[in-house]
Design a protein that fits this description.
The chain has a single domain, classed as Orthogonal Bundle (TerB-like), CATH 1.10.3680. It is built from 7 helices and no strands. With 152 residues, the chain is mainly α. The longest helix is centred in the C-terminal third of the chain and has 14 residues. Helix 3 packs across helix 4. The relative contact order is 0.15. Helix content is 59%, strand content 0%. The chain is globular and about 50 Å long.
Length: 152
């Protein structure tokens, strides 16, 4: 039986590896999650590499995707399923893009973890808001240049 922390890490690796490449920003974020979030309490961050290898072996199998999803679901108590989805959504947006492959993994996670549609929509919307960037014209201040007046 896998631990909740291992299941969370598996979900994160599945999202990160969905586009066949795991970026440094995503890997650093997984490390930060493991070191700082209460959901990983009691998990030794030094074991992250070992768990990542274990997950890679699961995913490399012929039925890797299904086995990975089962690994995530079976190791998570219901109260951590939304947490897994929140972290997966945040990780997917870490590089400010959401390729189709990552969207598909998020959809499968949502289904396998039985995340309510309204809850999922709220999580997805809050993730987009959290990673929103200001428009280019707002980068120099909160007022458009055309409305700024010269100092008296």
């Amino acid at each position: 039986m896998n631990s909740p922390a291992e299941s969370l890490i598996c979900a994160l690796i599945m999202v990160s590896a969905a586009d066949r490449k795991m970026g440094d920003a995503e890997l650093r974020r997984i490390g930060r999650y493991v070191k700082t979030l209460p959901a990983f309490g009691g998990f030794d961050p030094e074991l992250l590499t070992d768990v990542a290898r274990k997950v890679a072996a699961i995913l490399a199998d012929e039925n890797g995707l299904e086995n990975g999803l089962a690994f995530v679901r079976n190791g998570l108590p219901p109260r951590l399923r939304e947490t897994a989805y929140v972290l997966a959504c945040e990780l997917a947006m870490a590089d400010r893009s959401l390729p189709l492959e990552e969207r598909r993994i998020l959809q499968l996670l949502r289904q396998h973890l039985e995340i309510d549609r309204l809850v999922a929509a709220a999580i997805e919307r809050s993730t987009l808001a959290r990673f929103a960037e200001p428009p280019a014209e707002a980068a120099t201040g909160w007022l458009p240049a055309s409305t700024r007046s010269a100092a008296p």
